[in-house]
Specification:
The protein is an alpha+beta fold. The chain has 3 helices and 4 strands.
């Protein structure tokens, strides 16, 4: 959670923050869509531009070898005050 908070709210250089927390081999699957590292970086940069506040509830976490699965619920308030 600390990493996500930093990535979305810190004033630090985003590329340095991503390098701090993630290896270039990082892959993420969201709702069945696999993101390679470059797509993940682009995704985080978009979130930083549109989200002003977020709340994450983690329902479950499992891990096996070098994979982690989280089932989470996210509530966002965007810069235009829309919620999702």
């Amino acid at each position: 959670m600390h990493a996500l908070n930093d990535l979305l709210t810190s004033d630090s250089n985003i590329d340095k923050l991503i390098a701090k927390y993630f290896l270039i081999q990082y892959q993420q699957t969201i709702d069945g869509k696999k993101l390679c590292f470059g797509e993940f970086v682009s995704h985080i940069k978009v979130l930083r531009r549109v989200i002003k506040q977020f709340d994450i509830t983690i329902d479950a976490i499992t891990e096996s070898a070098n994979q982690i699965h989280t089932h989470r619920f996210v509530k966002n308030i965007k810069i235009d005050n829309a919620t999702s």
